[in-house]
TrEMBL record:
Organism of provenance: Nocardioides luti
PANTHER family attached to this UniProt entry: REGULATORY PROTEIN RECX FAMILY PROTEIN
Stretches assigned to the RecX second three-helical domain: 93-134
Domain RecX first three-helical residues, every copy: 47-85
Alphabetical list of InterPro entries matching this protein: RecX_HTH_1st, RecX_HTH_2nd, RecX_HTH_3rd, Regulatory_RecX, WH-like_DNA-bd_sf
Free-text function comment from the UniProt entry: Modulates RecA activity.
Family: Belongs to the RecX family.
Cited Pfam families: RecX_HTH1, RecX_HTH2, RecX_HTH3
Gene: recX
Listed name of the protein: Regulatory protein RecX
Chain intervals for the UniProt region annotation (Disordered): 23-42
A biological process term (GO) from this entry: regulation of DNA repair
The RecX third three-helical domain, residue ranges: 141-186
């Protein structure tokens, strides 16, 4: 049965609410509460309740949800069947999850592509899906985020010499996933803009 006409498709919070209300083409029975059902609770109903609880308020990757079901000792067969079903109707969408994650973490935390890729990998996102999402990052936005990080940190380094400031600022950008070339360029330019001497990157011996 096609579900592409569902008004909630693509909105996890609305989808969870719709499923819980039984207003979608999905099974319309009330979602049981395993706490009140006791030890005889239907394993599939329990697993469905776990998934809906996990998706309430935020999207999650399939791997995160799979790990949660495993932790709750949900049988693999039931877990896979439900995860497939949730994915089929759009409640689980790793591509949308990856893009939303990047949209929040890249400007919010100033993370570069490399750091974002590591985070997505920890979330269980397939490398190809992550790459496609990361390719949408505008290099100019990435540089702007790096400059904001440096400008904010630089305000706390007024009492240290330029060499120390450079080392700390480059280290900050490295931890955020920026390569050394970009890091030194941004730091040098921001130090100059602040009226401080430029410091060349150390040369290898």
């Amino acid at each position: 049965m096609s579900v592409t006409s569902d008004p909630w498709r693509g909105d996890v919070a609305a989808g969870v609410a719709a499923w819980t209300r039984g207003s979608t083409p999905l099974p319309a029975e009330a979602v049981p509460d395993p706490v009140h059902q006791g030890p005889e609770a239907d394993p599939e109903a329990v697993a469905r309740k776990i998934l809906l609880d996990q998706l309430t308020g935020q999207a999650r990757s399939r791997k995160e949800l799979s790990d949660k079901l495993a932790k709750k000792l949900v049988p693999d067969e039931i877990a896979t069947r439900l995860l497939d079903r949730f994915e089929e109707v759009g409640l689980i969408d790793d591509d949308a999850f990856a893009r939303a994650w990047i949209a929040s973490r890249q400007p919010g935390k100033g993370l570069a592509r490399r750091a974002l890729a590591q985070e997505l990998r920890r979330k269980g996102i397939d490398d190809e899906i992550a790459k496609e999402a990361l390719d949408d990052i505008d290099p100019a936005d990435e540089e702007t985020a790096a400059r904001r990080l440096v400008q904010k940190k630089l305000r706390t380094l007024s009492r240290v010499d330029d060499a120390t400031a450079t080392r700390r600022l480059v280290g900050l950008l490295a931890r955020k996933g920026y390569g050394s070339g970009v890091a030194f360029t941004v730091v040098r330019e921001e130090l100059a803009a602040a009226g401080r001497d430029e410091v060349d990157p150390p040369t290898s011996r």
